From TrEMBL:
This is Threonine aldolase. NCBIfam families: GntG_guanitoxin, PRK10534.1. It comes from Dictyobacter formicarum. Residues 4-287 form the Aromatic amino acid beta-eliminating lyase/threonine aldolase domain. Transmembrane segments: none annotated.
């Protein structure tokens, strides 16, 4: 059995989820007649403090629907240069929606550079530029290492956007991790954004599914875009049933994942050749890099390390040019972390015996 730290997407549905899926009452969701999906959507809207919600198959589709709904063809979207939307979603908004993406620098905590955003918002009167329709933010921030931005930072972006008649979408794939780290309700954290996508199938352990939330009129338009993308799923209440369990039973335990991630981070900081800032680790994701003296490990050395770690029973992933990512989640206990630390130390020792 591997200790799988590649992602929290590897989590398995719990026994309660499987039972709820088995028992789920279902209907045709394209007619809005699946009672379980309707219940999940109402629950999602309530928890996030938004008017309405839409169940979608994946986080990627949820973000694509949001961008296509907010920004029409030829209208621009401002995204962080480190954002999942820009880096890992195959250019959805531009490919499918004809919206150019303008990138702005991302600070180490995942916050967008506000000056760059201000300059990035197009001057309406200039016919050379595409009008800006949307700004996207991400919380927690994956590629920054699970970092979190707080209410005031989000409000600063929203205020700037709204002054210019621009909407704000939050990629909150792991918004419950962010809210847990800040110890505030999700609804408070997202109150100033126009739309939010969050995932059920990461730390919350559901097998499939994400939700897009926002105003009723926005969600009505988003339903049509979901249809265009083939995301109208008929009797998908079997999936929504697991999502309801995820929201009702799996949020509180996220704090354990954060503790385990911190434990891993401080343990890694003690291992030769590893560079990590353990005090920057606030949720369930950490990044570290490998160095030999002043020299960072080359690509092939990183690949060798990942193979050696695998031989030790530990699965890790790469993120960015030089970083290795570890993600904690349900099923990973403190004892697994201690075992992983021994294995990682051994893997490095095999490459550079001390
Ligand atoms: N992220 C995955 C990979 O794609 C990198 C992971 O293992 O972390 N937003 C954010 C911030 C995400 O981290 C992800 C998934 C998504 C959106 C997309 O969600 P899915 O995988 O459901 O399409």
């Amino acid at each position: 059995m591997y200790i799988d730290l590649r992602s929290d997407t590897v989590t398995q549905p719990t026994a309660a989820m499987r039972e709820a899926m088995y028992q789920a009452e279902v209907g045709d969701d394209v007619y809005s007649e699946d009672p379980t999906i309707n219940r999940l959507q109402e629950l999602a809207a309530t928890i996030t403090g938004k008017e309405a919600a839409l169940f979608v198959p994946s986080g990627t589709m949820g973000n694509a629907i949001a961008l296509l709904t907010h920004a029409g063809r030829g209208q621009a979207v401002i995204v962080g240069d480190q954002s999942h939307i820009y880096r890992y979603e195959a250019g959805g908004a531009s490919t499918l929606g004809g919206s150019p993406m303008y990138t702005v620098p991302t600070h180490p905590d995942g916050m967008l550079d506000l000056d760059a955003v201000t300059h990035g918002i197009a001057d309406e009167s200039d016919e050379h530029t595409a009008a800006t329709a949307l700004i996207c933010i991400e919380n927690s921030h994956n590629r920054c290492g699970g970092t979190v931005i707080g209410v005031e930072q989000i409000e600063a972006i929203s205020a700037l956007a709204h002054t210019h008649g621009v909407a704000v979408h939050m990629d909150g794939a792991r918004i419950f991790n962010a809210a847990t780290a800040l110890n505030i309700p999700v609804s408070t954290l997202v109150s100033s954004v126009d739309s939010l996508m969050f995932c059920l199938s990461k730390g919350l352990s559901a097998p499939v599914g994400s939700l897009l939330v926002g105003e009723t009129a926005f969600i009505r338009r988003a339903r049509r875009v979901r249809k265009v993308l083939g995301g109208g799923m008929r009797q998908a209440g079997v999936l929504a049933a697991a999502g309801i369990v995820a929201l009702e039973q799996m949020v509180e335990r996220l704090a354990e994942d954060h503790e385990n991630c911190e434990r891993l981070a401080y343990g890694l900081a003690d291992i030769p050749h590893i560079q990590i800032q353990p005090d920057q680790v606030v949720t369930n994701i950490l990044l570290f890099s490998l160095h030999h003296g002043e020299q960072p490990f080359s690509d092939s050395e990183i690949a060798l390390f990942l193979n050696k770690a695998r031989e030790q029973g530990i699965l890790l992933g790469r993120m960015g040019e030089r970083n290795i990512r570890a993600v904690t989640h349900a099923g990973i206990e403190a004892a697994h972390i201690d075992q992983a630390l021994i294995g990682i130390r051994q893997a490095i020792q095999e490459i550079y015996p001390s």
